[in-house]
Design the sequence.
């Protein structure tokens, strides 16, 4: 990976003169929306606003470089056709506030006069945000015609959308083969920071993994069984490990695919130098509801009619101690249903331990980042990744099409 990173570093936009040029920047503005002024998540809002601008703010250093900037992003999964509820207009409004300058939002991607705007009316410092690129059916198919159309709008291309870099789409991979292509500052930083965890971590390396399914993170578990000193398992995925060990899990969440993946991981852990830790106690609930009946379990067996929804107090102390003694911490996934207050203590304990840790701390995955924000700790971590699936694939050692296209450009 180090050799690839060397090539990648040579493709960074930081060393390119962009002033006075038209630059197409692929950003990841796939942000949550809510009805305007509501404070609630949007379902089918007629008028709405950005609920969390983290990804928009992360792209500002790349955008603010004096070029005539043409931004392209997806938002949600409109299925290749226009959907007013997934328009980029509210994103453009928030971006305009953050930049303190006018942001024009186009009515299309490569049509609706976009080429005329780019060719004549866009000058240095101007910002044009194209409409949702997934309104185009050719985006997810990596259609060459769409890639060529996007390339025709600019003099060079910059990919700053790390969260979409694991997709070989027209705006993330295809366009890079038609005009000079470079990595944006955020994309470059993401690859550098996450690769450092794998290649040159300060020891001990402690990896904290949560979430629902072992099958979603089996690649990361396999990789870090070879590289890490400790892997701490939390969240619903721990119940697949318990089932694989023949431990009753009551009504806790688990699926057959994840149980088999957990069984294989346990077998590999017996042969590895890495220590795989599971919770030693739990917080149980009757239902997935903030108002449900709850109780703490001294062990990890879950009786029928109950479900495990958080790690228990002894597990919290054990995990916090491991994080505190780490030279490098990688955290991906919550320890329980932290969005429900009765089951937030485990995730809060890990978040606080990560925030206090003296070692290098890296947090990835949407839920982990959301937890940091919820607990007011997001500014106390060395690196907070904007990528979910892209982070996992990079950590697994997979090649990301959006990155590879820049190396090969």
Sequence:
């Amino acid at each position: 990976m180090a050799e690839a990173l060397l090539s990648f570093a040579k493709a960074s936009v930081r060393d390119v003169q962009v002033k006075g040029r038209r630059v197409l920047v692929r950003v990841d503005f796939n942000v949550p929306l809510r009805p305007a002024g509501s404070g609630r998540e949007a379902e089918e809002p007629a008028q709405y606003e950005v609920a969390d601008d983290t990804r928009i703010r992360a792209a500002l250093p790349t955008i603010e470089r004096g070029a005539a900037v043409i931004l392209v992003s997806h938002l949600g999964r409109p299925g290749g056709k226009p959907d007013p509820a997934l328009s980029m207009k509210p994103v453009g409004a928030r971006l305009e506030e953050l930049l303190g300058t006018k942001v024009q939002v186009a009515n299309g991607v490569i049509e609706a006069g976009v080429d005329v705007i780019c060719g004549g009316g866009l000058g240095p410092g101007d910002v044009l945000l194209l409409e949702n690129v997934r309104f185009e059916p050719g985006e997810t198919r990596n259609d060459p015609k769409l890639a060529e159309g996007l390339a025709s709008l600019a003099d060079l291309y910059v990919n700053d959308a790390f969260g979409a870099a694991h997709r070989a789409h027209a705006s993330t991979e295809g366009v890079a083969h038609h005009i000079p292509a470079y990595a944006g500052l955020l994309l470059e930083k993401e690859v550098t920071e996450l690769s450092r965890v794998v290649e040159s971590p300060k020891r001990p390396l402690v990896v904290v993994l949560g979430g629902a399914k072992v099958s979603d993170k089996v690649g990361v578990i396999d990789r870090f069984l070879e590289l890490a000193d400790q892997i701490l398992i939390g969240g619903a995925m721990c119940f697949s490990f318990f089932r694989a060990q023949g431990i009753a899990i009551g009504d806790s969440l688990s699926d057959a695919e994840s149980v088999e993946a957990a069984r294989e991981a346990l077998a590999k852990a017996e042969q590895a130098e890495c220590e795989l830790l599971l919770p030693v106690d739990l917080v149980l609930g009757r239902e997935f509801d903030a108002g449900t009946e709850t109780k703490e379990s001294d062990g990890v067996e879950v009786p029928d009619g109950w479900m495990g929804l958080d790690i228990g107090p002894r597990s919290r102390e054990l995990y916090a101690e491991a994080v505190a003694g780490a030279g490098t911490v990688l955290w991906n996934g919550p320890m329980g249903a932290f969005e429900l207050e009765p089951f937030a203590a485990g995730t809060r304990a890990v978040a606080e331990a990560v925030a206090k840790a003296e070692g290098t701390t890296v947090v990835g995955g949407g839920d982990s980042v959301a937890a940091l924000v919820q607990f007011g700790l997001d500014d106390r971590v060395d690196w907070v990744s904007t990528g979910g699936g892209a982070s996992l694939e990079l950590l697994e050692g997979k090649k990301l099409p959006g990155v590879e296209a820049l190396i090969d450009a």
About this structure: Residues 95 and 387 are 20 Å apart (CA to CA). Residues 256-271 form the longest helix (16 residues). The chain has 14 helices and 17 strands.
